C-alpha cells in the first residue's frame, strides 16, 4: 500500500470510476437545492436524489462524485471519538438503472486491492452482509474469493427509510491490527461490533426492493429498475493510508491543528483535554468555512443557527487553550489550502468567509466572559439541576446556545431543566407576538374582534375599486352599529380592494363613498382571523352595519407602491448578482414615496458596487420585462428557483412573482405588469443596521426623477455661490479650493506649533517633585487632542524621568493625555491606569499603554480635582 495525500486519494477514486464509464458529478453545495426535506446535504447520495426518485434523468446512468457533507446530530462526539466530524467528504459511485451487484462489488474490491489503485492487503479486509442476501454472500465467497471467516452476517445491513426504494447492503472493513484492540470485549471484536480495530471503509447499497407499509421485508416486491449507491468516507480512508490513529491524525486536519498549536502555545497529543479542544476547533472551522462559502450565514434560525452554534462552540474550546481573542478566522486559509485541489472556490471567497467568521467571533466574545462566569457560579452552587430560568438568562442575555449550557453542565454532572427552558423560550416568543400584534393591529385586538370569523374577500389584485357591504364595526373595543361624522372606527367589509399591510408593503389608502356619505380609509391591517381590518374616518354622513359603499383605492398611491415593490424584487436580484448569493433579504418596507431593503452582507458597499447594482436594476427596467404572477405548489415554486424569504412560513400553495427570467420570488404583494412601468430607479443611501445586515433606501419613477432634479438644483446653487459658469468643471474647481484650504491649514498648524513650542519652553520649569517623582500636570488652552499629543511627545524628549498629565477642555468635554517614563513603569506607575482614573473623575473613560495613554471626560470643572488626585496617588506610593 502506497502512502498518498488526501487529494491524491480523492482524485484516484474519481479516476478509477471514470475509467469504468462513470460521469464525474461535481460536489453539490452543502445547502440543498429544491429539497426542503434536508437542512444540509448530509451524504453522497443526498445531492443525487433527483436522479434516484426519477424527477430528473441524468445524462449518464453511471455517476461518481466526491460530495462534501454536513451533519451535527451527534456533535457532542466530535473530538471525543476517532471518527466523528460535522464536515466530511463521501466518495461514491452510483448506478441509476444500469449495473448492479456484480459490478458494484467487483469494482469496489478492485479499487481497494489492486496495486494500481489503493493496494490494500486482501487478508486485512473483511465484509458484512445481510443474512438473507445469499447472492452477495456467494459473490464474495465464490467470485471475489474471500474465505468464509472474512464474511460476517449482520442484521443491520439493510438500508430502508420509510416506504419506497430499499435493499440490503454490504460493508468492507479494514483490519488495523491488534494494536487497536484496546479494552474491547471479545464479543465486540469483529467487523460487525463496536471497536476501533475493524474500520469500515466502503459501503454498497443494493437498492432493489420497494418497501411497503404492512409488509415484512421478505414480502417486498423487486423494483423494475435497480440502483447502486456506494459510499467511501475520505477521512477514514486517509487515516488508514497515512497510518493515522484517528481521522484527525491526517493531512486533512494536522495543518489546522499545527496552526492552533502556534496560536495557543499548546502541543497536540500532550493531554486528552488539549487534544479534544484542538480536534473540535479543527473540525468546526472546516464546517463553517465550507458552509459560509456555500451561502449560509450565522443567525438564530435554521442553517444560520447551526453555523452560529459551531463558531461559538469552537470559541468556547479555544478559551480552554488560553485563546482569548478572535482567531478562528485565521484558520480558514489553512482549510482552503488543504482543500484547494478540489475546492478552489474556498480560496476565491476567503476574504468574505473570514469577515463573516471574525464578525461572529468578536460579537460572541463581547458577552462570553460574563456568561461563563455566571454559569460557573450557578453550577458551583451545590445544585443538581440548573433551572430553566437560569439557562434562559444565559441564552437571552449572554448569547449562550442551550447546547453549550448543557455541555458545561455535564462537566459538573448537573442536569439542565430543558422543559422549563423551553417554557421560558415560548413565553419570550409570545411576548414578541403580542408586541407585534399590538403594533400591527392598532391596539384593537379585542376579544370581540378575535371572535369575529365571517370571511372577507380581497379583490385588490384585480381592481382598485369595488362595491362592498360593511359587516363589522368596532369603536373603543366595542361593537357598534352606527358611526357619525367626525369619528373613527375599525370596520370589516364582505369584500375589499384595499391591501392590508403585509410582507413589507404598506396598506392602501382611499375612500368609501355612498349617497351623502364619505369616509377616508387611513390604514388597513390583518384582523386575527385574516380579514382586512380598515381604520376609517367618517367625514360626511353616517356609516352603519350592512351599509353598501363604493370602496375606492387611491390609485396614484397604489401605482407608486407597486412600482417600488417590483423595484425591490429587482434590487434583490441585482444585489445577489453583484455581492453573491449570500445577500438575502432580511426585511423591507415598500411605501409610495420610497423603498427600503435590508439584506445580509458584512461590509459597506463600495461606490462602484452601488453604481453597478443601480445600473443592473435600471437595465431590467428598460428591457421592459413582463411581470407574471402565478399560483402553484410550494414544491413547484422551489423547483423553478423562486426565492423564499428566510424565516417566512409558506403554505402548500404559494404566489410566485416573476420579472421575465431575471427575478422569481414568492410574494403576496401587488406589482406592476411590466418593469418598464417603474421608469427609473435611484439609490438614496446604503448603511449598516446591525451585525452583518446592510440597508439600502431607494426611490423609483417620479421619486427618482425628483431626486435627480434636486441634484441639478444643488449643482446650480453651488455654481452660483462659487460664481462659476455652466461650462467650468465643478469638481476640478472644488478640488482646487480644497487644495488651497489644505495649504492654509498646514500654515495654521505650523504657526500653532511655533506657539506651542514657546509655551513648552517655559513648561519644563513647572515640573515638580512628588515623593521624588518628577510630575508635570496642567491644563493647556488653545490646543486640541492632537496638540496635547505633540506637547507630550516634546516634553518626553526633554525629560529623563517623568509623569505627565496634560488636559485640554471645551465647554462640553475634556481631553486627557498621560505619559510615564520607563523607569517609573518599572515601579508600577502606568500611564493607562492614570488616564482611566483621571477620566473617571472628569466623568469619562479611557486608557492605553503603560508609557502613553489618552482618555476623555465630560466635565471640565473637574480638571483641578483630577490633578489633585494624581498628586495624592503619587504621594501615597511606597
Automatic annotation (TrEMBL):
Function field: Catalyzes the attachment of alanine to tRNA(Ala) in a two-step reaction: alanine is first activated by ATP to form Ala-AMP and then transferred to the acceptor end of tRNA(Ala). Also edits incorrectly charged Ser-tRNA(Ala) and Gly-tRNA(Ala) via its editing domain.
SUPFAM superfamilies on file: Class II aaRS and biotin synthetases (SSF55681), Putative anticodon-binding domain of alanyl-tRNA synthetase (AlaRS) (SSF101353), ThrRS/AlaRS common domain (SSF55186), Translation proteins (SSF50447)
Xref: PANTHER family: ALANINE--TRNA LIGASE, CYTOPLASMIC, ALANYL-TRNA SYNTHETASE
Taxonomy, superkingdom: Bacteria
Domain Alanyl-transfer RNA synthetases family profile as annotated: residue spans: 4-710
Family that this chain belongs to: Belongs to the class-II aminoacyl-tRNA synthetase family.
Record-level Gene Ontology MF annotations: alanine-tRNA ligase activity; aminoacyl-tRNA deacylase activity; ATP binding; catalytic activity, acting on a protein; transferase activity; tRNA binding; zinc ion binding
Gene Ontology cellular-component annotations: cytosol
Reaction(s) catalysed by this chain's protein: tRNA(Ala) + L-alanine + ATP = L-alanyl-tRNA(Ala) + AMP + diphosphate
Lineage: Bacteria, Bacillati, Bacillota, Culicoidibacteria, Culicoidibacterales
Coiled-coil zones: 734-773
EC number: 6.1.1.7
Cellular localisation: Cytoplasm
Gene behind this protein: alaS
Chain sites annotated for binding Zn(2+): 565, 569, 667, 671
HAMAP family membership: Ala_tRNA_synth_B (MF_00036_B)
Domain notes: Consists of three domains; the N-terminal catalytic domain, the editing domain and the C-terminal C-Ala domain. The editing domain removes incorrectly charged amino acids, while the C-Ala domain, along with tRNA(Ala), serves as a bridge to cooperatively bring together the editing and aminoacylation centers thus stimulating deacylation of misacylated tRNAs.
Cofactor(s) needed for function: Zn(2+)
Note describing how the cofactor binds: Binds 1 zinc ion per subunit.
UniProt keyword terms in alphabetical order: Aminoacyl-tRNA synthetase, ATP-binding, Coiled coil, Cytoplasm, Ligase, Metal-binding, Nucleotide-binding, Protein biosynthesis, RNA-binding, tRNA-binding, Zinc
SMART domains: tRNA_SAD
Protein's UniProt name: Alanine--tRNA ligase
Biological processes, Gene Ontology terms: alanyl-tRNA aminoacylation
Amino acid at each position: 500500500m502506497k502512502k498518498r495525500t488526501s487529494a491524491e486519494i480523492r482524485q484516484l477514486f474519481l479516476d478509477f470510476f471514470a475509467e469504468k464509464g462513470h460521469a464525474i458529478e461535481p460536489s453539490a453545495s452543502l445547502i440543498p437545492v429544491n429539497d426542503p426535506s434536508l437542512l444540509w446535504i448530509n451524504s453522497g447520495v443526498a445531492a443525487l436524489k433527483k436522479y434516484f426518485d426519477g424527477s430528473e434523468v441524468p445524462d449518464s446512468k453511471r455517476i461518481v462524485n466526491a460530495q462534501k457533507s454536513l451533519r451535527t446530530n451527534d456533535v457532542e462526539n466530535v473530538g471525543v471519538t476517532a471518527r466523528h466530524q460535522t464536515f466530511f467528504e463521501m466518495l461514491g459511485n452510483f448506478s441509476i438503472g444500469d449495473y448492479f451487484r456484480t459490478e458494484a462489488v467487483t469494482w469496489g474490491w478492485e479499487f481497494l486491492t489492486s496495486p494500481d489503485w489503493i493496494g490494500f492487503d486482501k487478508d486485512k479486509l473483511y465484509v458484512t452482509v445481510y443474512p438473507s442476501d445469499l447472492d452477495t454472500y456467494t459473490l464474495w465467497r465464490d467470485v471475489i474469493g474471500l474465505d468464509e471467516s472474512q464474511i460476517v452476517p449482520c442484521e443491520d445491513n439493510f438500508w430502508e427509510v420509510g416506504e419506497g426504494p430499499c435493499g440490503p447492503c454490504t460493508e468492507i472493513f479494514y483490519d488495523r491490527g491488534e494494536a487497536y484492540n484496546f479494552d474491547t470485549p471479545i464479543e465486540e471484536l469483529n467487523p460487525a461490533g463496536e471497536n476501533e480495530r475493524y474500520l469500515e471503509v466502503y459501503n454498497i447499497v443494493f437498492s432493489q426492493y420497494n418497501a411497503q407499509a404492512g409488509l415484512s421485508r421478505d414480502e417486498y416486491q423487486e423494483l423494475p429498475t435497480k440502483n447502486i449507491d456506494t459510499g467511501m468516507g475520505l477521512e477514514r480512508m486517509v487515516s488508514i493510508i497515512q497510518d493515522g490513529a484517528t481521522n484527525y491524525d491526517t493531512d486533512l486536519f494536522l495543518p489546522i491543528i499545527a496552526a492552533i498549536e502556534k496560536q495557543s502555545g499548546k502541543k497536540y497529543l500532550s493531554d486528552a483535554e488539549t487534544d479534544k479542544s484542538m480536534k473540535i476547533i479543527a473540525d468546526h472551522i472546516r464546517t463553517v468555512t465550507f458552509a459560509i462559502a456555500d451561502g449560509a450565514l450565522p443567525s438564530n434560525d435554521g442553517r444560520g443557527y447551526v453555523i452560529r452554534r459551531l463558531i461559538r462552540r469552537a470559541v468556547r474550546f479555544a478559551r480552554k487553550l488560553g485563546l482569548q481573542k478572535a482567531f478562528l478566522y485565521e484558520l480558514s486559509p489553512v482549510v482552503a489550502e488543504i482543500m484547494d485541489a478540489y475546492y478552489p472556490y474556498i480560496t476565491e471567497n476567503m476574504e468574505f468567509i473570514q469577515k463573516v467568521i471574525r464578525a461572529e467571533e468578536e460579537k460572541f466574545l463581547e458577552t462570553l466572559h460574563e456568561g461563563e462566569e455566571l454559569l460557573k457560579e450557578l453550577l458551583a452552587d451545590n445544585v443538581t439541576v440548573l433551572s430553566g430560568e437560569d439557562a434562559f438568562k444565559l441564552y437571552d442575555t449572554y448569547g449562550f446556545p442551550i447546547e453549550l449550557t448543557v455541555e458545561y453542565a455535564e462537566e459538573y454532572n448537573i442536569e439542565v431543566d430543558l422543559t422549563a427552558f423551553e417554557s421560558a423560550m415560548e413565553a419570550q416568543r409570545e411576548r414578541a407576538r403580542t408586541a407585534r400584534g399590538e403594533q400591527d393591529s392598532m391596539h384593537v385586538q379585542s376579544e370581540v374582534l378575535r371572535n369575529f370569523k365571517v370571511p372577507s374577500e380581497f379583490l385588490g389584485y384585480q381592481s382598485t375599486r369595488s362595491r362592498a357591504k360593511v359587516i363589522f364595526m368596532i369603536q373603543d373595543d366595542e361593537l357598534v352599529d352606527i358611526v357619525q361624522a367626525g369619528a373613527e372606527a375599525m370596520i370589516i367589509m364582505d369584500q375589499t380592494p384595499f391591501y392590508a399591510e403585509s410582507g413589507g408593503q404598506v396598506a392602501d389608502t382611499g375612500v368609501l363613498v355612498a349617497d351623502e356619505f364619505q369616509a377616508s380609509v387611513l390604514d388597513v391591517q390583518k384582523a386575527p382571523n385574516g380579514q382586512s381590518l380598515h381604520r376609517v374616518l367618517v367625514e360626511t354622513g353616517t356609516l352603519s352595519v350592512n351599509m353598501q359603499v363604493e370602496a375606492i383605492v387611491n390609485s396614484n398611491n397604489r401605482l407608486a407602491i407597486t412600482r417600488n415593490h417590483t423595484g425591490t424584487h429587482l434590487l434583490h436580484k441585482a444585489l445577489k448578482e453583484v455581492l453573491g448569493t449570500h445577500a438575502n433579504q432580511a426585511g423591507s418596507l415598500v411605501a409610495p414615496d420610497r423603498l427600503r431593503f435590508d439584506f445580509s452582507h458584512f461590509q459597506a458597499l463600495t461606490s462602484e458596487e452601488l453604481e453597478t447594482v443601480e445600473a443592473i436594476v435600471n437595465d431590467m427596467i428598460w428591457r421592459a420585462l413582463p411581470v407574471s404572477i402565478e399560483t402553484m405548489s410550494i414544491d413547484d415554486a422551489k423547483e423553478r428557483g423562486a426565492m423564499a424569504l428566510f424565516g417566512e412560513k409558506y403554505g402548500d400553495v404559494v404566489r410566485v412573482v416573476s420579472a421575465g427570467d431575471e427575478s422569481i420570488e414568492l410574494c403576496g404583494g401587488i406589482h406592476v405588469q411590466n418593469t418598464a412601468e417603474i421608469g427609473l430607479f435611484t439609490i438614496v443611501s446604503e448603511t449598516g443596521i446591525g451585525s452583518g445586515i446592510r440597508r439600502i433606501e431607494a426611490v423609483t419613477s417620479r421619486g427618482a426623477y425628483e431626486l435627480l432634479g434636486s441634484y441639478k438644483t444643488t449643482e446650480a446653487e453651488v455654481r452660483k455661490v462659487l460664481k462659476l459658469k455652466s461650462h467650468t468643471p465643478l469638481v476640478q474647481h472644488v478640488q482646487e479650493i480644497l487644495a488651497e484650504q489644505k495649504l492654509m491649514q498646514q500654515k495654521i498648524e505650523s504657526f500653532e506649533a511655533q506657539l506651542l513650542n514657546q509655551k513648552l519652553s517655559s513648561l519644563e520649569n513647572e515640573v515638580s517633585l512628588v515623593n521624588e517623582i518628577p510630575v508635570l500636570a496642567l491644563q493647556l488652552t488653545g490646543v486640541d487632542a492632537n496638540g496635547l499629543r505633540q506637547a507630550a511627545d516634546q516634553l518626553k524628549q526633554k525629560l529623563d524621568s517623568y509623569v505627565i498629565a496634560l488636559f485640554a477642555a471645551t465647554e462640553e468635554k475634556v481631553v486627557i493625555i498621560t505619559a510615564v517614563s520607563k523607569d517609573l513603569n518599572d515601579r508600577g506607575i502606568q500611564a493607562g491606569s492614570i488616564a482611566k482614573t483621571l477620566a473617571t473623575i472628569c466623568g469619562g473613560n479611557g486608557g492605553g499603554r503603560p508609557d502613553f495613554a489618552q482618555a476623555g471626560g465630560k466635565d471640565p470643572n473637574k480638571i483641578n480635582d483630577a490633578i489633585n488626585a494624581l498628586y495624592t496617588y503619587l504621594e501615597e506610593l511606597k
